[in-house]
């Protein structure tokens, strides 16, 4: 058994862990007075998925709060509060309670009040999804802040949160999976860790002793190309070449399966001058199949269609099937209004984060929870043409041959929670 212990004026906190890697032990103990890293102001953990960095960091952060402070305020920051709770709060709550911490969450205030041996500290939750998020944390005085998935947050939000840590002894905690090598956090923090007085630890799946070899292999099979380099190898690498290189393999396409589907969804990338692409998706045995599509390219056809004419194409694609929802490009306000006015289908705007959507779609195609049927020729053609824009310094594909690619992305990110479903599907294999 490995032990991480901390002692201050209020008593002793002892944590029993079945097994810890050397890097995990550093994360658990770096802030203690006995540690060689005690004088560091920050810790940065990056690297592969499932490498054991997130759980030990979140637990260590809470224990450190009571090691150094009492009646103080802290912040836990995620891309969204929902993802923060899923990644950090929910997993550590049973452990904290088992250790004797009293935890009271106030959902309306996005606050967790924790008490141990009569000492109370307050943890506030923040989502750093865009530039406007910086205003949410202004005016606070914090004794420490932890950023989960910091590479997905805008720089303005992170810097505003850091500026709130004006209490003596406050520290910064960062974890993330890699992005592109020109990313601001990689340039300003990881490459400058020594100048920032930050402890930098790079994790791989081998640093997580609780991960079995067959589980490691399962995760390795879920990624390819740049996402394999980033999420399995843990490297900050640039994108290049095809966005979905594995879709060049004919074995990735299948015939429309026989039998009944228990749910149908249509995803739409709407265009008038640009092509319009609609995908019909059917679910069978927990697998989603693109069983048909509507694709209209006004430049090739020599004329444009109106919203109503595209709606007729949507009706034809749906046929007499019961469509659970129609997911539409959020910028296509007029087409969304047409669908609502006819009142035949439930319609919802799609989630539209490009790079995250590509990652999720790539993972779904690789693990087999989403499959493309051979009769869907338009999306198959775009798979062969869709490329990363190597002239840019950030992660963006070329804005060409991307309309079926967009409706695929809208479907995957909007129809189901990839963080839950991918893992559930993978464990069944």
Write the layout of secondary structure elements.
Blueprint: E1 2-8, E2 11-17, H1 22-29, E3 42-47, H2 53-68, E4 73-78, H3 81-98, E5 102-106, E6 111-116, E7 119-127, E8 144-148, H4 155-163, E9 171-176, H5 184-190, E10 198-203, H6 213-221, H7 225-231, E11 253-254, E12 263-269, E13 276-284, E14 287-296, H8 298-301, H9 307-318, E15 323-328, H10 333-342, E16 347-349, H11 354-367, E17 370-373, H12 377-385, H13 403-415, H14 418-428
Parallel strand pairs: 3-9, 3-10, 4-7, 4-8, 8-9, 11-17, 12-15, 14-17, 15-16
Antiparallel strand pairs: 1-2, 5-6, 6-7, 12-13, 13-14
Helix pairs in contact: 1-2, 2-3, 9-10, 11-13, 11-14
Short structural summary:
The chain is of the alpha/beta class and 429 residues long.
Q: What is the strand arrangement across the widest sheet?
A: 5-6-7-4-8-9-3-10
Helix/strand structural class: alpha/beta
Distance between the termini: 32 Å
Compute the number of helices.
Answer: 14
Shape: elongated
Q: How would you characterize the largest beta sheet?
A: 8 strands, mixed
* Structural Rg: 24 Å
Average pLDDT over all residues: 89
The tally of strands reads: 17
Range of strand content: 15-25%
Helix content: 25-40%
Which regions are unreliable across 5 or more consecutive residues at pLDDT < 50? Answer: 1-16, 418-429
Described by its quaternary structure, the protein is: single chain
What does this protein structure show overall?
Helices cover 34% and strands 24% of the residues. It is built from 14 helices and 17 strands. The chain has an 8-stranded mixed beta sheet with strand order 5-6-7-4-8-9-3-10, sandwiched between helices. It has a 7-stranded mixed beta sheet with strand order 11-17-14-13-12-15-16, with helices on both faces. Strands 1-2 form a two-stranded antiparallel ribbon. The chain is elongated and about 70 Å long. The N terminus and C terminus are likely disordered.
